[in-house]
Amino acid sequence: MEIKKKLVMSFKNIKDKQVSFSIENPKDDLTEENIKSVMDLIVSKNIFSVGGFDLTSVVEAKVVETSTTPYDLVIE
Q: Does the N-terminal or the C-terminal CB of the chain have fewer CB atoms within 10 Å?
């Protein structure tokens, strides 16, 4: 079984639409303070513009873990 992690950061843009960014394999020692600080910086410095619309606020952040179980379906 393979387990993958990603950090999903969600924001609101100027049109009040929610947009998200994902970072694959985030560090295990990330804290809420680290994540909040980076997200606030992204908003305050207009680092990203999605669809031409600036981000205006932080909504949430979460680490998503996905487990994958492959099956060998070759039958001889």
A: C
State the pTM of this model. 0.85
Domain-embedded: residue 74 = no
Walk across the sheet containing 18-24 and list its strands: 18-24, 2-13, 53-68, 49-50
Confirm whether 32 is domain-assigned: yes
If you search the block for the tokens 């060998």, which residue do you land on?
72
Does residue 28 sit within a domain? Answer: yes
**Structural domain count of the chain:** 1
E strand or H helix at 64: strand 53-68
DSSP letters of 11-50? EEETTS-EEEEEEES--TT--HHHHHHHHHHHHHTT--EE
